[in-house]
Every structure is written in structure tokens, then in C-alpha cells.
From TrEMBL:
Spans traversing the lipid bilayer: 49-71, 96-114
Name this polypeptide is given: DUF1648 domain-containing protein
Superkingdom assignment: Bacteria
Keyword terms, alphabetized: Membrane, Transmembrane, Transmembrane helix
Length: 123
């Protein structure tokens, strides 16, 4: 099984790649971009600076998830009320869940606006 720290580092790497792509393409992104979508397509519009807000929110989310992954002794209670056979197994399972969650959230945050960065900047 992969270490939760290695899996978490994938989300950090994805965010760094996204920041690099956004920095390089930011000047060619249209000033007004869709920021909300419905079944009919974009129905809410805003400034392209909203893309940096997504980066900030993703960074904050990753920071909050990093705390229990890197400092489990401070984040998890020292009880025996876990369903797993040992406290170590319980903490490892929760760290693994949080690290996979960090990757999924980063993909969602970056993936939603990547279309605006890459597609619209070349039109």
C-alpha cells in the first residue's frame, strides 16, 4: 500500500503544474470567463482573476488536509474506539482516505477551470 504522504504529494504536484500553466496562459485568457455552469452551459460570469481564487482555495484545502496526514499524533484521539484492530491501522486508514481525497479535490478544482485556460486562450 502506498504511503499517504506520497499520495498527498501527487495533489501538491498537480496544483504546482496547474499554477505554472495558469501563470503562462493568464495573459491570453479572456477577461470575462464562465464561473458557474448549469445544464445549458455557462450561466454565471466573472473576472479571470477568479482562477487565482480557485488556486487559493485549493491551497487552503490541501493545507488543512496536510495537518492530519503529516501530524497524526496531534490530530487523532488516542482512544481504542476505532473499528480497526489497532489504533495505528485506524490512523493509517484515515490518512490514506484524506490523501486520496486531496488528489480528487485538486483534480476537480484544477480540471473545472483548465478548460477556460487552455481552450479559450487559443480562440
Amino acid at each position: 500500500m502506498k504511503s499517504p504522504k506520497v499520495i498527498f504529494s501527487i495533489s501538491v504536484l498537480l496544483l504546482l503544474i496547474y499554477i505554472i500553466v495558469l501563470s503562462q496562459q493568464f495573459s491570453s485568457v479572456q477577461e470575462i470567463i464562465p464561473v458557474h455552469y448549469s445544464g445549458d452551459g455557462g450561466d454565471g460570469f466573472g473576472s479571470k482573476n477568479f482562477l487565482w481564487l480557485e488556486v487559493g482555495l485549493n491551497f487552503l484545502f490541501l493545507y488543512l488536509l496536510a495537518l492530519p496526514i503529516f501530524f497524526p499524533e496531534k490530530m487523532f484521539a488516542k482512544t481504542t474506539d476505532y473499528l480497526e484492530s489497532s489504533t495505528e491501522a485506524a490512523i493509517k486508514n484515515r490518512q490514506l482516505f484524506l490523501s486520496v481525497l486531496s488528489v480528487l479535490v485538486t483534480i476537480i478544482f484544477c480540471g473545472l477551470s483548465l478548460k477556460e485556460i487552455i481552450c479559450l486562450s487559443f480562440i
